[in-house]
Every structure is written in structure tokens, then in C-alpha cells.
Amino acid sequence: MARALADHIAIVTGSASGIGRAIATRLIEAGARVVIADRNLDGAHAVAAALGEKAVAVAVDVSDEHAVAGMVERCREAFGDCTLLVNNAGIVQQGRFETLGVSDWDRMIAVHLRGTFLCTHAVIGPMLAAGDGVIINMASQLGQIGGVELSHYSAAKAGIIGFTKSLARELSTRGVRVNAVAPGPIATELSMSLSEEWRRTKTAELPLGRFGEPEDVAETVAFLASPAAKIYVGQTLCPNSGDVML
Ligand code: NAI
User: Fold this and answer.
1) Which pTM value belongs to this model?
2) What pLDDT, on a 0 to 100 scale, did the predictor assign at position 2?
3) Contacts of 35 (CB under 8 A, 6+ apart)
4) Ligand 1 pocket: which of 144, 188, 206 to mutate (most atoms <8 Å of CB)?
């Protein structure tokens, strides 16, 4: 039997702002308990305080193995073993390929791919032991179609989609469902940090004519985490204003 949304013990990385905060809020509204995990501890505390006793804040850099172990331990102390992991933490950086340094590349891959690997690895033991767990990975449509001056970001997000499919094939018969979400442009601090020209051009291209809101992505995550999505395995759902039609 798939676990009801209200019964989940969730960790949402990068939930001090933007899409992660909306996901945490949506899960708490549904009755789940949620660890607000972010490298911005003040922001995480503010979100947790606003969400009440079903939320707890923890500082984490998802690319740091020890910090990730601490995050999972904090979840266990506060609520019990994590049953729902949302790998959402992310960064963006625009830059012509020839100007990108090795450190830019390494940081992008570390936060998105290494971070997704580390957090998943840290929660998977109890999930497999219980035969019960949900993993949701935040990709991006740029991992599907690529993006100009976003080669490292797009590569990391494409990697997350490949990781999701492989893990889903490996784990779904053992009770752990793994899926991804690939949003189009969503109005958050991250997308606002991209150039104004990019945002203007992108808005004009969108069939819906506007960016999505963080709550649109949160709704997709809530669905994937719920028993209603029990047949979804290794899928990439696309809340994207119609930008990419697969
Ligand atoms: P945001 O910048 O509002 O939030 C990202 C959060 O992740 C921040 O709170 C930040 O402190 C945290 N974070 C960054 N690096 C971290 C690390 N190493 N460890 C722990 N926390 C860290 O960004 P937004 O837009 O909410 O993005 C969330 C996710 O959605 C990201 O993975 C992003 O790539 C993805 N996404 C965003 C889109 C958009 O248009 N905003 C479109 C497609 C995907």
C-alpha cells in the first residue's frame, strides 16, 4: 500500500526559498512532517517557523557528505526515518562556454548531481529495509532541450534525469518509487538572476505567455509523492507553461 501524503516524513533540500519552500508548504498542508534543509540556515529557520511544529530546519550543503549525514540524522531525531526525499537544492549560473572555468563546472555538478546522489544514498537504507519510499528529483527542461550559456547547468539536469531513470529501474520492485520533475521557467530568485533579455525572450516564447509559480511545481511534487501516482516510475513530469512538449 502506498503511503498517504499525510503520513510522509519528508526532507526537502533547498527549501528556504522558491520552489523548495512551496513544496514544503504544500506537504505540510497535506499533513506531512518536513525537514527544511538548506545551506541558508536563517532562511530555513524562517520557513520552519512559519510552517509550525511539523517543520524543522537544518543547515546542509548537499554536496558535503558529512553535512548530508547530519541532515538525515536530524530528520530521524525529529520525526523518524525519511520516507520522502525531494532533491530540490540548486544553483544557476549563466556563462558562455569558453568563459566557464573548471571550478564553475565542478560546483554545478557538485550541487546538482553529487548532491542528489549523496542525499539519496543517505536515506535509501531505511527505505529499502521498509520497502517503502519516494524519491523526487528536481531536474529542469534545460536537461531535456539544453540551454544557451547554460551548458554545465543543462548537463547536470540531464544527469539527474538519467539518474532518476536508472534508480527507478533498480528500486521500484523493492518499494521505492523514483521520479523527476522538469519545470520550465518558474518565477523565483533563481530565474530572476538570469539576464533580463533572457526572461523577456522566454516569456514571449511560452504558449501560456507567462512563467509558472513555485506552487505549480509543488502541486506536481505532491501528486508524485501521493498514492495517486503509484503507477509513475522513472517519469519526468513537466510543469512548463507549454515550453517543451514531449
Ligand atoms: P532558489 O534560488 O529560489 O532556491 C534554491 C534553494 O537551494 C536556495 O534556498 C538555496 O539556498 C538552496 N541551495 C543552493 N545550493 C545549495 C546547497 N549546495 N545545499 C543546500 N541548499 C542549497 O531556486 P528555485 O528556482 O526555487 O530552484 C529550485 C530547484 O528548481 C533548483 O534545482 C533549480 O535548478 C530547479 N529549477 C528551477 C527553475 C526556475 O525557473 N526557477 C526551472 C527549472 C528547474
Assistant:
1) 0.98
2) 85
3) 10, 11, 12, 55, 56, 57, 58, 71, 74, 75, 78, 79, 82
4) 188
